[in-house]
Amino acid sequence: MGGLVLLAGNWRAIYVLQALLGLCLLLYALTAFRESLLISARRSLRPSVLIESYSIVLKNADLRRNVLIYGLSFACMFTYIAGAANAYVGQFGFSETNFSIVFALSSMGIILGAMVNTRLVKMNLTAPRIIYVGLGMMLASVALINAFAALQCLQAYILAILAGMVIFSFGLIAPSLNHEALRHLGHVAGVASAVMRCVQMLLGAAVSAAGIVIPKTYPATSNMGILMLA
What we know:
80% helix; mainly alpha
């Protein structure tokens, strides 16, 4: 989609389109959905109640562990997302359209990972086991990216395949991490979910900033691999 937008306008048009789509979704949510939670079950938005909810959430050791794993896994994947343009267009010489196609294909891994997660759950595999397997796949893929980059034989198709495996791994573990983080929190699960998303976005922003300030001594793929491994 981004490549098609760039054919009609500049990069700013992508954000304009995103803003318009977001506005449409907001209007649709406001007009088509009604609150289904009973009034008696709703929590107050008073500051004291919110502080109490966040205190309960942040004291939960299981949540902290799963949030950290989720956030760092997302940061690993987002390093590729943030640095893909420099790698494919800047280093490998892809056109914007070809880059969009390759990026879209590798990004489909997150959908496939979530689908596989569903099948594995139906086969009675536990969430921790799925998480361990997914993290192992992610680590192995990142290690191979760094190995190929160090040997100076990291081709575009190899990067796309291995990065696709990283994205697939995140899609595989994300539902299980969400389940493990929220399942015991009951009435404060919404607050816990907000904490997860906050940490996720903060770490994503951090790796994006690191990708900008990191010295350009090495090729874009080498810098990307180092950040993903970190």
